Amino acid sequence: MQSRRNPDDVAIANCGNLGYDGQLGMHLDRTIMLNEERLRAILEVLRREGRVLVPDLAQRLKTSQVTIRRDLDVLHQQRRLHRSHGGALPARDGMLEVSVVREKERTQCKERTLIAAAVRMVKEGQVIALDSGATATEIARSLRYFRNLTIITNGLAVVAELAGSPVEVILIGGTLCKSSFSVVGPIAEETLQHLNADLLFLGVDGRDVEYGLSNPNLLESKVNQAMLAVAGYRVVVCDSSKVRRRSLSFIATLSSVHEIITDGRIPKSDADALKKAGVHVTIV
Questions:
Q1: What does pTM read for this prediction?
Q2: Whole-angstrom Cα distance, residue 223 to residue 36?
Q3: What is the pLDDT of residues 5-16, one digit of tens each?
Q4: Architecture of domain 108-283 in CATH?
């Protein structure tokens, strides 16, 4: 009789241990799609369908949304497509359409506003927990000018942003997940159990009033749960595009967080439901 595999074991099989270069690492290197091959696949889908979306590409190519966003940015810089909010459109004679440029500018402005609202909550002397996502990385970039701050994170991009700054950084140990450029797994979760943070900023892929918060990566979600457990004040930072979306892996119910920072496009019914659940809603 075959034993059932633990979901954690399956997820860990998709990541390589830090510093490990044996047969498992060699096997993983062979199974990970090469960057150029992935870029060609994205362009082929775009050619056939006329538009691509980040979540759909991540599912088709079996990689993270962070990786897909990075690929789309590369293709945009190469003028092989037009980057748009949530995905990309076909290139048109190497010229960026005005509507696409304006949409991108609006999105970037909205994201900067959310980040600024989060950073205003931070005070010198605090311990801040950050996850490994793009939002956390942007917050870290704004925190590098603090003089007396400690950051706990599992994100290598966050560490890179804070390198050379006065900020003290605690990178938790664990298993390297190449697709999200982060450390995850039981070691990461256990390390967090021995730490405490004053404030947690958490970015999520999905936020649904009934389902709660979610993430496309099972192991990332477990690290997110561990961060929630050790943070005194828990803040979700995400724009309204994440509303009523359910990603693969459940993180926590909405009542598990104290505050959500979002933009003015959040439906009033959702904002009312959040407030009813005891969550403070900051609209910027």
A1: 0.65
A2: 30
A3: 444 444 434 444
A4: 3-Layer(aba) Sandwich (3.40)
